[in-house]
Amino acid sequence: MGKTAKITNKKQDWLALAIGNSRLHWAWFRGEVIQLAWDSQHLSGFRQNCQIPPEVLPPNQVSVNLSQLPLCIASVVPEQTLLWRNAALVQVITLSNIPLNNLYSNLGIDRALAVWGAGDTYGFPCLVVDAGTALTFTGVDGNHSLVGGAILPGLRLQFQALGQHTAALPEVELTSTLPLRWAVDTITAIESGIIYTVLAGIANFIVDWWQQFPNSSVVFTGGDAYYLYKNLPKFIPEMATKTKLEPHLLFWGMRLAYLQSNQSKIFKKN
């Protein structure tokens, strides 16, 4: 997939693209430092000139031509990955590029990168709670070995499922405040049922993790991470000081993979 880029100095500009289930997540790096992060819609096709299409680039003006920078991709949507096959200077991250032990073959690359980034930043062992389209738990021990994890529908996906697959229930949007637990109307009852059950489930997973790894970091990331992170301490107060929020955690893992690849040349040419 394109030619392989090479960093020649620590100040080189490059782009990270995380292809998620719902959106494209972008970060413009200068060496190891993020200059700008943004999201865009999935592509329906690709330009013939092998440059990054302008519709996925940020609307504000930046100091460099982002469309021609080296591009590092991590994807959970194979069909979207294929659209970048004609792009110049592309590297695609695979599980073989991640120096963690016991990774199973179909582990999501986003989960592996996020927990690698968490461990490198905050120390191992660590647990990552990723609140995106899917809500995932991924834990790695002090020997950098995958302990395991879990996957369930994310908050917004649960709301959508009730609205789209029932005859009488409306589709409800996630609001910024906690609903009443004991609701007296249908919309609040949906909010209560989903939100309090998810919060209780997350708390249960974290408590179990801390029983195994008492000094472990727990890091929240993903689109709904802030909502969960700010509300969990209302039920378990110690989570306010023992958990962390990092919206760019996946990019920390991509940064490790990209910079490491340009030192050891471990990336495959696709």
From TrEMBL:
Its cofactor is K(+); NH4(+). Pathway: Cofactor biosynthesis; coenzyme A biosynthesis; CoA from (R)-pantothenate: step 1/5. One of its GO terms (cellular component) is cytoplasm. K(+) binds at D130. Keywords: ATP-binding, Coenzyme A biosynthesis, Cytoplasm, Kinase, Metal-binding, Nucleotide-binding, Potassium, Transferase. It is an enzyme of class 2 (transferase). ATP binds at A18, I19, G20, N21, S22, R23, L24, H25, T133. The active site is at D110 (proton acceptor). Its main location: cytoplasm. InterPro entries: ATPase_NBD (IPR043129), Type_III_PanK (IPR004619). It catalyses: (R)-pantothenate + ATP = (R)-4'-phosphopantothenate + ADP + H(+). Belongs to the type III pantothenate kinase family. Catalyzes the phosphorylation of pantothenate (Pan), the first step in CoA biosynthesis. This is Type III pantothenate kinase. It comes from Stanieria cyanosphaera (strain ATCC 29371 / PCC 7437).
